[in-house]
Amino acid sequence: MARSPYGNYGHAILTAGALRTPDQVALTYCDEQSFTYDQLNRNVNRRAHALLEKGVGPGRRVAALLNETLRVAEVYLAQAKIGAVTAALNPYWPVETLRDVVAASGCTAFVYDATVEGVVGQIRNSLPGVTTWIDVRELVGDSDEEPPVSGWYDDPLALYYTSGTTGLPKAVVHTHASSLATAQIWLDVPRGPDSVFGTGAIIWGIGFPAIVGPALYAGMRLVLEQDWGPANFLRVVPRERVTHLSQIPSFYAALLASPEHEDVDLSSIQVIMLGGEPLTATMLERIKARLPEAGVYSYYGQTEAPYTCMGRVDDGTTPLGSSGRPRTGNAVRITDPNGERVVGEVGEINLAGPHRMTGYDGLPERTAEVLRGEWYVGGDLGTLSPDGVLRVLGRREDAILKGGVWTQPVVIEEAVSALDGVAEAGAVGVPEGASEQEVLLAVVPRAGHTLDASKLALALADTLPAHQRPDHIVVAVALPHSQDASGGPGKLLRGKIRELLG
To answer: Signal peptide location in the record (predicted)?
Structure first.
């Protein structure tokens, strides 16, 4: 029996939209180009035919080092249509990491854009297994007709890489089916025929199935920018009338710490999706004070199981500090050290659903450690309420042990952030891994404010128990964050706080 093309990620994400609403605008790129669903689909088809002409076909692994957001969208979708497996490389990796990841990936083809030509020149001779090198500017086929569709359902679609905080980044295998399940994110969130999703260059890697795929699958207009830092955000949102956003709370700490946003029209924003790190009550208050009409949602997931939980936190639907309930078709449980399910107690977070990875490529032992039957168990701690609301407490390795009591840093950070003049805070235990630690707190003042460490210590002595009070307070110009190509701050790097200030 012939397989339905709707089991193919590229066809279901894009071609279906081109058949449904061919004249609707699908994508706007840096205020320079705009494409309808039909036009974008034809462009992707040209890329697909060009790839086939270069010998890239079903099952072939292709390393993709792309930083131009439009090219990311076109190439990833083209490779999905023809059944090639995309190794989604991070253009911000060190050259050595990039080389080693490609060498371990099994890729025999490599596609890149003009922004990374220099890097490609540095690694090319050290990757003899890669026999086909493709400049994306060469990928312009003669035909814009639909290519032969290949790759369906449980066939591998892509390798998306973990952050690689220890050792080489692990290659997470996602299939056409798991990526389509992730693409249903916006079906659980209010949207309309004029919804506009804005984002920046973070769309390579897992950002692609978590951002591009869902926007197109839901029939939105996707606004792609190269820079999504606060300054460009303040230009693009009013220009494009952006309605939907997906970011981390640190972005708003940076955006609202400066007065530059105050006279900018941000009234088009309807939905703000926040995840990747805890959302404090203070930050939610600041966001709602600036954007009172926007619905604020929290989400939780990992590269291995993206966007598992979701919930609106600004209207009482979901308790603040939680990540909501599992999305339709997904499941969450908490287990104790014996692997038994517990409710209302701290334990390990287990995630399950059709969006879950199939495993780590080439790492069967590591896969066996985290896949327990249908569940993925990735090392995060949390609690689950009797009515199914998940509260994420943090990574096991981030917890601070003082006075014989474990504390997650976010508890201390939230108390500090509520104090006047504090833009951002980061707490860590020092020394790392000790059986008894002290609390090191780093704080950043808001624009126009100054902070005094001794006064902060006195204020926190009134609000925090002894085992959570900071032993050392450092007032810093900025806190270390990951660089994720968004132009704004990435996730807070608590380990770097310890390294730089401890």
So the answer is: none
Question: At residue 165, does pLDDT exceed 60?
Answer: no
Phi-psi map region of 362: left, alpha, beta (phi>0 left; psi -120 to 50 alpha): left
**Inter-residue contact 443 to 419 (CB < 8 Å):** no
Query: Cα(244)–Cα(145) distance, rounded to whole angstroms?
Result: 32
**Rg over CA atoms, the chain:** 23
For residue 77, with 0-12 CB atoms within 10 Å meaning exposed, 13-18 middle and 19 or more buried, which class applies?
Answer: buried
d(CA 310, CA 324): 5
Q: Which residue, 133, 125, 68, 53, is CA-closest to 95?
A: 125
Distance, in Å, from the CA atom of 87 to the CA atom of 476, rounded to the nearest integer, reads 38
Three-state DSSP state, 371: strand
Question: How far is residue 393 from each of residues 117, 162, 277, 300, 436, measured CA to CA in Å?
Answer: 42, 20, 10, 11, 20
- From the number of C-beta atoms within 10 Å of its C-beta (0-12, 13-18, 19+), residue 328 rates as exposed
In angstroms, the CA 185 to CA 307 distance is 7
Please measure the distance between the N-terminal and C-terminal CA atoms of the chain and give it in whole angstroms.
Answer: 63
What is the value of pTM for the model shown? 0.84
Per residue in 201-255, pLDDT (tens digit) is 888 899 999 999 999 999 999 999 999 999 999 999 999 999 999 998 989 998 9
Beta strands, E only, 16-98: 25-29, 33-36, 61-65, 85-88
Tens of pLDDT, residues 478-497 = 998 876 555 566 778 888 88
Among 276, 290, 185, smallest CA distance to 237 is for: 290
Render 394-457 in DSSP notation, one character per residue: EEGGG-EEETTEEE-HHHHHHHHHTSTTEEEEEEEEESTT-SS-EEEEEEEEPTT----HHHHH
Residue with tokens 């955000």: 233
Token pair for 188: 């659980």
Distance CA(215)–CA(389), nearest Å, equals: 26
**CB hemisphere CA count around 227 (13 angstroms):** 10
Report CA torsion sign: 207, 33, 27, 18.
Answer: negative
